[in-house]
Design a protein that fits this description.
The complex is a heterotrimer of chains A (about 120), B (about 90) and C (about 80). With about 120 residues, chain A is of the alpha/beta class. Chain A has a single domain, classed as 3-Layer(aba) Sandwich (Hypothetical Protein Ychn, Chain: A). Helices cover about 35% and strands about 20% of the residues of chain A. Chain A contains four helices and five strands, in the order βαβαβαβαβ. Chain A has a five-stranded parallel β-sheet, sandwiched between helices. In chain A, β3, α3 and β4 form a beta-alpha-beta unit. With about 90 residues, chain B is of the alpha/beta class. Chain B has a single domain, classed as DsrEFH-like (Hypothetical Protein Ychn, Chain: A). A five-stranded parallel β-sheet of chain B has the order 4-3-2-1-5. In chain B, β1, α1 and β2 form a beta-alpha-beta unit. Chain C contains two helices and three strands, in the order βαβαβ. In chain C, α1 packs parallel to α2. Chain C has about 80 residues and is of the alpha/beta class. Chain C has a domain of about 40 residues. Classes of the chains: A alpha/beta (about 120), B alpha/beta (about 90), C alpha/beta (about 80). Chains in contact: A-B, A-C, B-C. At the A-C interface, loops of A face loops of C.
């Protein structure tokens, strides 16, 4: 199976990058690709629990991230970035793998294609 | 003087807006990604009043217990009232 | 006292959160009886194209059309 890595470096909602990253991650698995979605820098904020889109006109991207995992996307979150973003590894939802820089490097090395958001 | 900051702590724009507000002893309103600045210890030594948009914080899953003491959540009506009352609005950064 | 709000919108409708911020501030200010101008600059002009089909995010055409009915003045 062909595999791709999608790297998200931006926090959700302020711009379209997080929404596009999860959209293409879902598109990838729907097209029988093996997809690794890697959250780094402020991209880890996509995994923050308790996002509430009530009356905002936005799609709840925290819920979409859960949908991604249910569809089979492998989601990784950079340990160091979690700390930098005032989050704790305990705040990261179940199913997301917390990984180090070298582990992320290995995932990217093994991916046939990389998309960066 | 009132400064509105929309860019997050991970950007030069956001940092610039906060620094300018600090240098001018201005009050600020944090909106969009800038709401992360309202988290504890991110605005150490900031003297002015700090407002943030309630909806922009809850959208991002920021809980009340994460917010720096003294920061005040407002809605768009609250922001518009402040904007109408202030002599000068700077932003948005 | 009624004041004039002039908002500069310089980004395209769906890449940033600025469209929503502009819509919400304009809506609240109009409801309070203020005069509101939006000046679209650069890619901001794309917020005012016809036949936008955006879903899951604030549809710029729809929201600005509503606000223009409420008295919003738009300058491209």
């Amino acid at each position: 199976m062909k595999n791709i890595a999608i790297i998200l470096r931006r926090s959700p909602y302020g711009d379209i990058n997080a929404a596009e990253a999860v959209r293409h991650a879902m598109g990838g698995v729907a097209d029988d690709l093996s997809v690794a979605l890697i959250l780094v820098d402020s991209g880890v904020l996509l995994a923050k629990q308790g996002q509430d889109d009530t009356e905002t006109g936005f799609t709840n991207l925290g819920e979409v991230l859960t949908d991604c995992m249910e569809m089979g996307v492998d989601v990784y979150s950079d340990k160091r970035s979690i700390r930098e973003q005032n989050m704790d590894t305990a705040d990261i939802p179940e199913g997301i793998k917390v990984v180090t820089g070298p582990e992320i490097a290995d995932i990217i090395k093994s991916a046939k294609t990389t998309m960066i958001y | 003087m009132f400064v509105i900051v929309k860019s997050g702590p991970d950007t030069q724009d956001g940092k610039r807006g906060i620094k300018l507000a600090r240098d001018m002893s201005a009050d600020i309103c944090l909106i969009q990604n800038a709401v992360y600045f309202a988290q504890k210890e991110r605005l150490d030594g900031f003297c002015g009043k700090v407002y943030l948009l309630d909806k922009d914080a809850t959208l991002r899953g920021i809980r009340d217990d994460e917010l720096e003491t003294g920061t005040k959540k407002i809605d768009y009506d609250g922001l518009v009232e402040i904007m109408a009352d202030e002599d000068k609005i700077v932003g948005m950064f | 006292m009624s004041k004039t709000f002039t908002l500069l919108l310089g980004t395209s409708p769906y890449s940033y959160e600025n469209t929503l911020t502009t819509v919400k501030i304009a809506e609240s200010a109009l409801n309070k009886g203020h005069t509101v101008n939006v000046i679209a600059s650069g890619d901001g002009v794309y917020c005012f194209l016809k036949a936008q089909k955006a879903k899951g995010i604030t549809n710029a055409e729809e929201k600005f059309s509503e606000l223009i009915q409420k008295g919003l003045r738009v300058y491209l």
